[in-house]
Structure formats: C-alpha cells, structure tokens
Design goal:
- Strand 9 and strand 10 form a beta hairpin.
- The protein has a nine-stranded mixed β-sheet with strand order 6-13-12-7-11-8-10-9-14, sandwiched between helices. Strands 1, 2, 3, 4 and 5 form a five-stranded antiparallel β-sheet that branches.
- It has 17 helices and 16 strands.
- It has three domains: about 170 residues, no CATH class; about 220 residues, P-loop containing nucleotide triphosphate hydrolases (Rossmann fold, 3-Layer(aba) Sandwich), CATH 3.40.50; about 55 residues, no CATH class.
- By secondary structure, the protein is of the alpha/beta class.
Length: about 550
C-alpha cells in the first residue's frame, strides 16, 4: 500500500470528524444567510470607443485599456471623492473579448444609490477621459498656431520677399491652418454613451447554494483535521497500519467481534500455531508491550482452543511480575523449590495450568529475584516436563517493556504472539517490543489486535486428583493426561479409565471401550493406589 493510500485510509477512518465539520459548516452558512442575506442591486451603464478611423479590433484594445484604468484602486479613490460615491457601493468596469464597448457597473443594497452611483461614475469617467484628450489636443493646437504666427510675421516683416518666397510661406500657413482645424475637430478615443440611463438588475443569494458551500468548506476543513489527527496519532487503531508501521503481519483482529466469531478466530489461530503431527509440540508465548489483561485472556483462550480429548494443551503463567500466593508454580520450579509436574493445576474446563508460583526468598522483591532465576534452557526444561503429550504449550509472558524476564521467556518459545490493545497501545511501545523480540531472535508469528480488557475473577484452579497425579508422574510420550472433572459440590470425580477416544477416531475406527467408572473422591484424599496425599496439596478437610 502506497503512502498516499495509507493516509487516505487513515483519513477515511475518521469520517465522523469530516461529517461533523461539514454539518457545522452547513449550519453556520444557513445561519449566516438568514441573518445577513439581503437583495443586491446592480446598475450598469455602457460606453463605446468605436471610431470611424480605426478597425473594431483596435477599438477593442483601447476599451481594454480604459477598463484597466477604471479598475485601478488609485483612480477609484479619486472617483469616489470627486463624485461622492459611498464606500459600500462596488464599482467595476468590464468589456467583451473583442468588443469596443465597455460596461461600468455599480453594486450595492440600495437601489437608488446604486443607480445614481452608476450614472455619476460613468459621466465622471467619460469627462475625465474627454478633458485629458482635449487638453492634449489644445497643446498641439497651440504649437501649430505658434508656427502660423511666425510665418505671418515673416510676411509682414520689414524684409521684402520675392513672389516665390511669399507663395511658399502662404502655402505653409494654409497647411498649418488645415492641421489646426483637424486637431480641433478630432474626437478620436473619446467615450460615447450608448444609453441614456443605466440598466438595473437585482439578485438574492440562494439558501441552497449557501448551504452547499458551507458543507463543502466544512468537509474540506474536516479532511485537513482528519489528516492532522492521522499524522499525529500515536495509538493503535486497527490492523491496517500494522504492516506499514511495524513490518509485521496482523494475524487477527478480535476487537468488536461477537463471542462466537471470537471463538472461531482464536481456534483458527491455535490451529495455525500448532505444527506437524500429533506427537509434535509447539510452544507459543503470548506477550504485550505493557501490562495487558487482553494478552492474559488470549493466552487462556489459545490454550483452551488447542486442547482436545486426547491431545492436550497446557497454559504456563510465566508472568514473574504477578506471583500467585495461593499455589506453587513457575517461579517455584525455576528456584528448585517445587516440582513443575506436581504443581500442575486443573481449571474447571479441564485445562492444565501451571500457576505463576509463590517463590519467596527473603532477599528482596519478586521482580528483582526472578531475573536471576529465568533462563531460556530452564524455561524449556519446565515446558518439556509438564507438556507431555501436549501439542500446544502457551506461555503467558510478562510485559516486554516492564519486565526484562519477558525476553527470556519469549526466546524459549517456538513462536510469539504480540498482543496490542486497540485505542490504548502506542505505536512507539509496539516498535520497541518488536525490537526487543528481535534482539533475542524470538520469532514473531504475528500480531493480534484486541480491545482493552479488565481482569475477571481468576479461574478456580484445583490440584489434580491422586489418580491423575500418578498418571502425570509416570506418563510418557503418547500417554494422555486427563484432569479430573468436578461435580457441583466441588468434589473431584475420579476416573479409572483415561483412554477416551477422539470423536474423529471413533467415527473412523469404532472400537468398543468400557464406560468410565466415576466415584466421588475429595481432592487430595488417598485412593487405593495412593496412600499418601500428593506433596503440597492443600488439606480440604
């Protein structure tokens, strides 16, 4: 997409600004029209420069010169002062393209004043031109008359002239007298009136034209404002600008979608993230530039979407900046104070969850201590330990710009999903997050744009039942890990048969399997296979 197209899309995205300013412009024009609109009168008088001694095209050139002279501000100031024309009346001269006729018009709100102004302006201008021409010809006539007087004095002087000389002087006198007569009778370049009084016309502004003009002006102002907002906008709005601004693809936009559509988009994303056959695992880190409930929600949804009845997914809450004081988990496993597999919890929907943990060292705060614990190989070891038979492991990483540990967690993942919150995340933060991920060679699978979220009530995590804990401790690759479901009374239902066929497999290869035998067993209580409760399990008695 070219820069012009990008800015066009950004401007059109702010169409409410353009519409609002267009409406404001139209309303302002209508209000101005009804408060100031008046009838305008125009009086026009016509003058001609036509001469019998020149062609019409030459007279047209002279008319253009007169028009230019009349429209000069300096001359109009003198004209108004001499003729007493008020300043609220507009004077203008014009002519046709090749016409010797020029038109002098006066425009104003008073009909009689306009008519009088047009008449006075026309007569004054015509007289000014005439007086200038007469004065010039008078000077020429005086020069000729002076030459005639010299010739006459020569004839009447004391010197006796021969007849030939007298005839020559007389011929010169007669020639000069003829020239003098022509000069005095010449009316070339004079302006001649073509009508006895000026014509009148009136006009009233059309309210529709005023409304359209105001709307167009407001819309143009709105485009400029929208363009300014687009240039100065620092927030993430939608997926259109992601490629141009960050150089990465937006794989999904979850803002303002229906719950069913959101579930479908998340499942499509989970399917795209899982690689290879049923025994291959993909580790995905979900991270945001700043603390984001939307990123935590997406990590939970991805893990749930990647789980099935035979191939499961595990959610690792690796946000070391938000420890969980209720259960041991990720931080405790990093510090060697708890076993990662023994710390696995089950959500009500059966999702395996490794809490962030409650590691506590008396040396200071969690954020400072966690930096010395997190290393890519340690994160990988924990994922390998807990994600047996899981095709998808989701790491809910801490914010990139708030916790240095986030880079390490993301570096241990196969793919990284960067979550940006619409209308909240800044492009500068997003660019810095992309740079931090590139520094540790964390592969960005794509960017997801979601709407800002609020943290809801946490999942009521429960420890796995004794039977399942035993399976988790002894399971190998290919052995399913199925957390126990819970009854309405909060009591775990022990399952003695865990090998539940996939719907697709049972449809293709129907194999009879015994129905699971469920019995109510309190969480953490001993069973026939486990006489000692699992270490770390809370006492529910």
């Amino acid at each position: 997409m070219s820069p012009l197209q990008q800015y066009t899309v950004r401007v059109l995205r702010r169409w409410p600004v353009i519409v609002v300013l267009a409406l404001v412009g139209a309303a302002s024009s209508v209000a101005w029209f009804f408060t100031t609109a008046t009838t305008s009168y125009t009086a026009t008088a016509a003058l001609s420069t036509q001469s019998s001694e020149r062609g019409p095209e030459q007279d047209a050139v002279l008319a253009l010169g007169y028009v230019d002279y009349f429209n000069q501000d300096s001359y109009q100031e003198l004209l108004r002062r001499d003729a007493g024309i008020p300043a609220n009346i507009t004077l203008e001269a014009m002519t046709g393209a090749t016409s010797p006729i020029l038109y002098i018009s006066a425009t104003g709100a008073d009909e009689q004043a306009v008519r009088s102004a047009a008449t006075v302006a026309t007569d004054t201008f015509r007289n000014d031109v005439r007086e200038n021409l007469i004065a010039d010809r008078r000077r020429t006539a005086e020069d000729i008359q002076a030459e005639i007087d010299r010739n006459t004095a020569e004839l009447t002087g004391p010197e006796v002239l021969q007849d030939v000389q007298v005839n020559i002087v007389l011929d010169q006198i007669r020639s000069l007298q003829g020239r003098l007569t022509d000069v005095l009778a010449d009316n070339t370049n004079h302006l001649k009136p073509l009508q006895s009084e000026p014509g009148m016309a009136s006009s009233t502004e059309n309210p529709l034209v005023a409304t359209v003009t105001g709307a167009v002006g407001g819309a143009l102002l709105g485009v400029l404002v929208a363009l300014l907002l687009a240039v100065t906008d620092s927030r993430v709005r939608n997926r259109t600008d992601v490629r141009a601004r960050l150089g990465e693809d937006a794989v999904a936009e979850l803002a303002d979608v229906a719950p069913a559509e959101r579930a479908r988009l998340v499942r499509n994303l989970a399917n795209a993230l899982r690689l290879g056959g049923p025994s291959e695992r993909t580790v995905v880190a979900v991270v945001a530039p700043r603390d984001s409930a939307a990123a935590r929600r997406l990590a939970r949804e991805l893990a749930a979407a990647g789980a099935s009845r035979r191939t499961h997914a595990v959610l690792v809450r690796a946000d070391v900046t938000a420890p969980d004081e209720a259960w041991p988990g990720f931080l405790d496993a990093l510090a060697g104070q708890a076993d990662a597999r023994a710390s696995l919890m089950a959500a009500p929907d059966g999702l395996l969850v490794l809490p962030s943990g409650r590691f506590d060292d008396r040396g200071g705060g969690v954020a400072r201590r966690s930096w010395s614990l997190v290393a890519p190989d340690q994160v990988t070891e924990i994922v390998d330990e807990i994600a047996v038979d899981c095709r998808l492991a989701v790491l809910a990483a801490p914010p990139l710009l708030e916790a240095p540990e986030s880079q390490v967690v993301c570096a241990a993942a196969d793919r990284v999903i960067l979550v940006l919150e619409r209308d909240r995340s800044r492009w500068s933060d997003a660019r810095e997050a992309v740079r931090l991920l590139a520094d540790v060679h964390a592969p960005i699978a794509g960017i997801v744009i979601d709407e800002p979220q609020f943290d809801g009530p946490p999942d009521p995590l429960r420890p796995l039942t004794a039977d399942v804990a035993d399976v988790v401790d002894t399971a190998g690759v290919g052995d399913p890990i199925v957390p126990e479901p819970y009854g309405d009374d909060g009591v775990a239902l022990r399952t003695t048969e865990l090998d539940l066929p996939d719907d697709d497999e049972s449809a293709e290869n129907p194999t009879p399997s015994p129905r699971p035998r469920l019995s109510a067993v309190p969480a953490g209580a001993p069973s026939e296979n486990h006489q000692v409760p699992r270490p770390g399990a809370p006492d529910h008695e």
